[in-house]
Amino acid sequence: MNKKLHIVCLDVPYPADHGGMFDLFYKIVALQKTGTEIILHCFEYGKGKQDELKKYCCEVHYYKRKTGLKGFSFSLPYIVSSRINKQLFERLQEDNLPILLEGTHTTYLAYKNLFPDRTVLLRLHNIEQIYYHHLFKSETSLIKKNYYRLESRLLIKYERTVFRKVSFILPVSEKDAGKISKEIQKGKVKYLPVFLPFGEVNILQGIGEYCLYHGNLSVAENDKAVRWLANNIDKNSVKLIIAGKNASASLKTFLKNNKISLIANPSNDEMNHLIQNAQINIVLSFNDTGIKIKLLNALFHGRHCVVNEASIPGKEFESLCKVFASPTQLNEIISHLKNKSFNREEIDARTNFLLTHFDNETNAEKLNAIL
């Protein structure tokens, strides 16, 4: 029997050109492979219509997001109020199919309890109240800081309400699943691993020559992470390379003054080369919700992976990484690993874990079973 459902995306899920889009797009691809028919609804605010999506969806509908003051509300989070759309509601009313809401951003209709007798699933990419609180703490711009603080405060009450109104919540991390299960009925929370473009583990044996931190350097948290590493890592012991897009002029000057190499706006091939050839990939985060795609990229393609606790989505990842809790511990781990060859046994262990947890078609079948 054919399966069919609505998926409501917070953005146009193609091209999947950064980590935030991977789960959206590759979930659609995997579901279509299992025989699921998808009616896709997506909010458009810059990407335009994408014919590629027609390959995987029987219908694709686009809705303009109300950006700026038009989408602002003092009572609802902006990520939600800017995506309220009457036409979307009318289309979803035309049948009684299950609805998969991608992110808290798309949950207004569930918040208003407009589909009380439908199966409504929430795919939770982050616990947004936590995510925005950490953005508030990392941001230096006063305007953005105040926006993130307001958004976080509004999301506390909003998410608490929405979590109780949907049929199931599907977090991308075990850590988030555990946090939510403490507040609502445990059976409603079902951890579903993130969907990825990485089809195989591709790690080089041997020894590399540098430590690498990579990320979108225009994001305040990543800027903060780079400065923390520059101030705390023992640069006499190891070469540190920073790679990523859109570093600010201030960050470029800071790195130059600290004699740290910056690879600015690398291509995908260049970034993959940097990750593969590093001796150590460092993943540092101050935000402990969701899952860091940069961590999974490093695990699928890099040698030793050194992280802080906020970077890993669950205890099971501790066997794959070295976890530090202080600058002293970070430098001790680097000193231990900088000349340690990455061997076939370690690659096999990594492969077994990653392909067990992050097989897209297996996880699509798990989602079908929930539906």
- Cα distance spanning the termini: 13 Å
Q: Which descriptor suits the 3D outline?
A: globular
Question: How many helical stretches?
Answer: 14
The counted number of beta strands is: 12
Q: Supply the helix-strand structural class.
A: alpha/beta
Low-pLDDT ranges: none
Arithmetic mean pLDDT? 95
Helix content: 40-55%
Percentage of residues in strands: 15-25%
User: Strands of the largest sheet, in order across it?
Assistant: 3-2-1-4-5-6
Q: Rounded to an integer, what's the Rg over CA atoms?
A: 21 Å
Q: SSE order in H/E notation? A: EHEEHHEHEHHEHEHEHEHEHEEHHH
Reported for the largest beta sheet, the result is: 6 strands, parallel
Write the layout of secondary structure elements.
Elements: E1 3-9, H1 19-33, E2 36-44, E3 59-64, H2 78-81, H3 86-92, E4 99-102, H4 108-111, E5 120-124, H5 128-138, H6 142-165, E6 168-171, H7 174-181, E7 211-214, H8 220-232, E8 240-244, H9 249-257, E9 261-264, H10 268-277, E10 280-283, H11 293-301, E11 304-308, E12 322-324, H12 327-337, H13 344-357, H14 360-370
Parallel strand pairs: 1-2, 1-4, 2-3, 4-5, 5-6, 7-8, 7-10, 8-9, 10-11, 11-12
